[in-house]
Design brief:
This protein has 9 helices and 5 strands. The chain is an alpha/beta fold.
């Protein structure tokens, strides 16, 4: 299929997620597989793009929780079809990422998007879930011998939990071996810099690209 044909399918996937059309997402996802289009690119440029657009409407108060949940259902319906077709054999990166939503926050759609794309990109992902204490996050990272802690929140009131994770990691003596990345609606690069995180990503695809870049830098150092 031509690049323009692929892009039409990606746009259709994104629109179907945004419009909460679960059956349409499934139909288009099957078309992606039939046309032998790269499943990871369809997830990133179709399903995730649609959820990012829905998230923006939520921030603009045009969508609310019921709409976001229906968009999420549509996205996961597509993921169920596309995920088994991701070519992981060619992914040589097998760094381990412990991911979670910090204590006090139960919003996990963004975290789930990041988890999905990291897994698709060849990372080994340990999902701690949501509303996780800083100590539990650090303990899990040490126990799992993780290379990365990825933190998410959508609430300004819980952002300092991210700072606590970095501080606890320092106190544990593992800060040099574990990278910390942060993201979520209220989080910024300036905040990431202030707490000493290794990186900030505004979107799920950006989180994947950032980690890939961080580890390339390490390998070439």
């Amino acid at each position: 299929m031509s690049n323009s044909g692929e892009q039409r399918l990606f746009t259709a996937l994104s629109d179907a997620v945004l419009n909460m059309e679960e059956e349409a997402v499934q139909e288009i996802a099957h078309k992606v597989i039939e046309e032998r289009i790269d499943a990871y690119r369809a997830i990133e440029n179709g399903l995730v793009d649609g959820m990012n657009r829905a998230g923006q409407l939520f921030e603009d108060e045009e969508y609310f929780i019921p709409e976001i949940l229906l968009c999420s259902d549509a996205m996961y319906a597509g993921l169920e079809i596309l995920d088994p077709h991701i070519d992981r054999a060619q992914q040589r990166v097998r760094k381990k990422v412990v991911i979670g939503v910090v204590e006090g926050d139960t919003h996990d759609i963004g975290k789930n998007l990041v988890k999905t794309l990291l897994d698709a990109a060849g990372f080994e992902v340990v999902d701690l879930g949501r509303d996780i204490s800083p100590q539990q996050i650090v303990d899990s990272a040490i126990e799992e011998q993780a290379d990365v802690i990825a933190l998410s929140t959508l609430m300004t009131t819980t952002m300092e939990g991210m700072a606590s994770v970095v501080e606890l990691l320092l106190q544990s003596g593992h800060r040099e071996t574990v990278k910390v990345i942060v993201g979520g609606g209220p989080v910024s690069q300036a905040f990431a810099d202030r707490i000493g995180a290794d990186g900030y990503a505004p979107t799920a695809p950006a989180a994947v690209k950032m980690l890939q870049g961080l580890f390339r830098e390490t390998e070439h150092a």
